[in-house]
Amino acid sequence: MSSVRIASSLALAALLAGRAAAAPSATPAPAPAAALEGSDARGSEPRPRELALRFAWPRSLEARVTYRRVVARPDGAERVFTARYTERATRSVDELRIASSGTRWDGEIPYPPGEVRSAIRASEAVVQRVGADGAFIGLRNEDALRPVLQRIYGDAGLTDEEAEQVIARVEEAMVDEARDGWNLAVGFWIGAELDVGEAREKDVDAPVWLLPAVAVKSRVRMEARRRVPCTASERKALCVELTLHSEPDRAALPALTRAIVAKLAGEEKALPPGEVLEVGLATDLTLVTEPDTLVPHRVVWRRSVRATLVDDEGPHELEDVERTEWSWSYVRRGAPAR
After folding, report:
1. pLDDT bucket at 311, cuts 50 / 70 / 90
2. CB-based contacts of 199: which residues, under 8 Å, 6+ apart?
3. Rounded distance between C-alpha atoms, residue 139 and residue 136, angstroms
4. Burial class (CB in 10 A: 0-12, 13-18, 19+), 187
5. Does 190 score more than 60 pLDDT?
6. What single-letter DSSP state applies at residue 301?
């Protein structure tokens, strides 16, 4: 949801590693879940559904949020970044604004130590804007990190023109990541109608996260898996666990092979010796949310690429996994929105 401060950090990490010029922009938002309702796994005709997911956030909302991102490389190395912050959402006449405070970062923080406090303060000045219908609008104060970035890139020896180009990419990536975070937790699901325990599948032609400039045919499977308590301390199953799995059609994989191999090679720019026999790519999303309001409680987003290499000793499996989690613990809720 409000991943603004995280997005800027991760974008900066990529830039400082020298990969920004070749890095694709964030994956475009998937089609709303309602667009997948045309067919389901059992091929049944459209009919009234058990769950009707609607966007109905209260007029104000406050939560303690934990964000965690783990990147597991094929060689077993892990990079972990964690952020904790308080998130407040307030509604005006025509939009919802989401802001953060009390931010703490742990793990691999992609800022120089002397700039961390300034970067946190700047990230908290950025406010997410969402329309009354639940559609992502954009960010307010999206340039708040600019002074911090100017100092960092100045110290790195970039010219003013080079620094400006890089900072513009950081700001663009920050907006993209905020949009993606909102759509994963809320926006994608608005208008979906599902039955608990019943999966729905559909073939779609859309870009994939690894290569957003290329539309490929993918199989998308969506399911309201079960009713669950919203938190570990509750007993009533007032929330629902929603899942989404997307995987490119096998016929589309040759077009993705080069990008998959490059992702697995990472900064080393090389894979172990052997012939690439098979590749794969998958995205899995799990969301625990309140079906009547789409107030989220937990998101787990897993993106993986894999390849099978064959050498004289036989086949070897390589996999690169990015796992991103958000969890919300609500401490204050206002009156229902009307």
Report:
1. confident
2. 40, 41, 221, 222, 223
3. 9
4. buried
5. yes
6. E
- Interval 5-38: pLDDT, tens: 444 444 343 334 333 333 333 444 455 666 666 5
Question: Under DSSP, is residue 94 helix (H, G, I), strand (E, B) or coil?
Answer: coil
CA angle 200, 247, 255 (to 5 degrees): 140
Distance, CA of 306 to CA of 316 (rounded, Å): 10
| pLDDT at res. 76 | 80
212 CB-side CA count, 13 A: 11
Nearest to 214 by CA among 25, 35, 20, 11: 25
**In the predicted model, what is the mean pLDDT of residues 268-276?**
66
Tell me if 136 sits within 8 A of 187, measured CB to CB.
yes
Whether CATH 1.25.40 fits 4-333: no
